[in-house]
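Predicting holo structure, glutamic acid bound.
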Amino acid sequence: MTMTKKTVTKKTVTTNRIADARRLIVKIGSSLLVDEASGHIRRAWMDSLCDDVARCRARGQEIILVSSGAVAVGRRHLGLTPPLRLEEKQAAAATGQIRLAHAYQEALARHGITVAQVLLTLADSEDRRRFLNARNTLDTLLRLGAVPVINENDTVATTEIRFGDNDRLAARVAQMSGADALVLFSDIDGLYTADPRKNADARLLPEVREITPEIEAMAGDPGSAFGSGGMVTKLAAAKISLSAGCRMAICKGEPLHPLTALENGATVTWFLPSAGPMTARKQWIAGSMSAMGSLHLDDGAVRALASGKSLLPAGIRAIDGEFDRGDCVQMVNGDGRVIGRGLSAYSAADARLIMGRKSTDIESVLGFRGRDEIIHRDDLVMEG
Ligand code: GLU
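Done. Tokens:
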């Protein structure tokens, strides 16, 4: 069999964008997972997705699933028929989520993989402390080999405090977890230059590097049928994802083994960031946060930082200012010069208690075992 050069190139690039992801977020829309008429979970499709997840894990990738479907699965158990009021959706989600989680547990147990359910609200991605807690929990779960299955905590999220759609939730999860790739599986195979159902000239864009006003106009207005099909929220997700240095795919999830299909060259729009997650994170620390305090360092700590190491409590001589865990602080050398900035893993009060001490003393001084570093090297940027 001969393949054209073009096909080979496309397949190779797409394969790498999935296979090269160290941490991959996969978002699954309700319409793929749940049969509309019966409200049943499509188990064959779910099993095939979980086979793909197991394959990715076996080659060393970390996977987080963001799955919709709680409302669609739950409503028939409460005798609810659409359209549902908000409180009915919340009730449906409460009964559907437990079934959804159970189905994932069974599908992944076939591969000996442990599932962990994480329900998030918008506030968990906006409040710094909750953001850090969620991030640490996800890190820990992934380190321990589990596959987190995330959904919005619909039962407590009211209109003004909800994501409302799992596209944006998935992008926030990508940002929170420092993922390098996000795939939105839905019933749309990518971003078109116009509504393909109305316009025969509509073209699918295989790659987008920037969300310009022209690109936004292609999503249609949210009130149109095309727009409410979800392209508007997908572009909102793409913006979050690109700013976090995470590449994002929009593609059809319908075929069985949808990740394999994507690797094999399925139609897709890829949104490609200009920098990776670590660079984006460092740019964010360098550019958009004001320092809430200063850490005065000894010469040993200054040398350790210069060689790319993290900042340990032992190297801190004095602390100015009041800050919380997760706040930005600046680091000052013995001459009083600011040498860098970063996110503190401890509040000012706790940092004052452990400064100058060994990391092994942290637990006995504070009564809990936090991070060994005051500022982890991933969370700091040095001045020019
Ligand atoms: N969280 C909702 C559910 O599980 C879905 C939201 C969405 O599909 O975007 O039913």
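The radius of gyration is 23 Å.
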